[in-house]
Amino acid sequence: MGSKSLLKVARSAELLRAVWNSKETNRDSMDVTLSDLVASAPGPKQQEVLVELVRPGLVVIQPTPFCNIDCSYCYLNNRSDTSRMSSSTLRAVARFLLGVPIGEKPLSIVWHAGEPMVVPVTFYEEAFRSFAPGDGSSPFRHHFQTNGTLIDDSWCSLFKKWSVCVGVSIDGPKQLHDKYRVDRFGRGTFDRVMKGIDALRAHGLRFSVLTVITRETLDMADELWEFFKDLGASHVGFNVEENEGAHRHSSLASGEFSAKLRRFFARMAELHQKNPNIRVRELEDMRRHLTAPCGSVVTRSNNRPGAILNIDSHGNFTTFSPELLGLDDSRYGRFTWGNVHHNDWSSLARHRGFLKAHAEISAGIELCRRSCQYFAVCGGGNPSNKLAECGTFVSTETLYCQLHVQAVADAVMEQMEREMAAPTASLQVASGT
Ligand code: SF4
Asked: Rounded mean pLDDT of 3-28?
């Protein structure tokens, strides 16, 4: 069996890691057989059952559930609710966060779960001041994930003053973007987003881009890449149109789209290789996972207890996937396991709702570990997708896995296989069969 066909057989992430790591450490002479690889791949690792809270690495704060636009794939149930966080809740959030054990400083705070810029600039001036201790050395870094339609000079001044990281949601060229990202009158929002991006550029502010992949995106990888280049984005992240929350019917919900997604990401990987100046979150993360030491398992912050803290506009808090915030589920009840006015961070671990969710999320991760060949590079999935698609956390594969995790893993593995099999590579793989 030649190297190419052997590499095709070695489809699981762990086997590919074994090949890759062997190539990296032993370039000059190598004689690897498939049975060697199978024998050297470590057996399933005992999943550690986490009963203690992980130190938070991310905080998502909802200044308001309201959004000024109305994307047709939006998962937010309460996006017409115009309530906003009060000053007293803001101060309580600040007190609460100063009592949280921070892992790595600065701790990232993302203002999201509604459109963060429908509340005024003065709200954030007050927020950022109350989150900074007197000596001016803030333990937090602020991020906005915004639809971009409201960015103007006054927002840019705020971003500059407080070194805010800005992520703009835009789905590509106008015809792609305006199909789904519409306002409350059904009108496309592309021109307004571009005006906001022009303001960022005029102020010399860097920004990242978040793009939702829909059915129409799949044949437009090249156009999309050109668009990102012209836009001047430093980082690009992709989400897929999911069945989640208020959105139950993804345009990608049919078997044919997994293969199309894989081709889309494969093309993105080629384009990225030619022009690595634009960083692509999915490709970089997956390559890092695939080249990690054999036996390592990706940990996913949205299924680890405490790793992400989500705080709503009333001060209620929860952990795990931010998309759970505000949900009221027949099996798990409301995903609010404390309130910043009355509880501290550690009380989370004693809440019955949290304990039930944690036990079932852990059981779902264990099922994934036993059944899925992508587990090592996935870490057992996003609880909010499992709940939305399967009705329980004790579940495994979802549409989201197929379209996002598995399609990206396949595309990146193919790229790595090509790199290893290239004639110039010194890797020589001999078959033992
Ligand atoms: S969530 Fe999906 S891709 Fe991830 S390990 Fe579970 S089944 Fe596999």
From this structure: 51
Report pLDDT digits (tens) over 121-133: 999 999 999 888 6
Taking a C-beta distance cutoff of 8 angstroms, is the pair 350, 53 a contact? no
Nearest to 303 by CA among 396, 187, 374: 396
Are residues 13 and 376 in contact, defined by beta-carbon separation less than 8 angstroms? yes
Instruction: Dihedral sign for Cα 128, 132, 134, 137, please.
Output: negative
The answer, yes or no, to whether any atom of ligand 1 lies below 6 A from the CB of 213, is: no
pLDDT score of 246: 58
Asked whether 155 lines ligand 1 (CB < 6 A), one says no
Residue listed under structure tokens 């949280």 = 100
Contact 93, 200 (CB under 8 A): no
Arithmetic mean of pLDDT over the chain? 85
Closest CA to 398 of 386, 409, 407, 384: 386
Which residues in 134-156 are b (16+ Cβ under 10 Å) and which e?
A: eeeebebebbbbbbbbbbeeebb
Q: Tell me how many domains the chain contains.
A: 1
Instruction: Using the mean position of ligand 1's atoms as its centre, give its distance from the Cα of residue 375 in Å.
Output: 6
Check which CATH number belongs to the domain holding 78 and give it: 3.20.20.70
Is 90 among the domain residues?
A: yes
44 vs 409, higher pLDDT: 409
Cα of 75 vs centre of ligand 1, distance in Å, is: 21
Q: Do 34 and 9 form a contact (C-beta atoms < 8 A)? A: yes
Ligand 1 midpoint to CA 346 (Å): 29
Domain that holds residue 134: 58-290
As a whole number of angstroms, the distance between CA 406 and CA 184 comes to 34
Nearest CA to ligand 1 atom 3: 401
Sign of CA dihedral 151, 153, 158, 159: positive
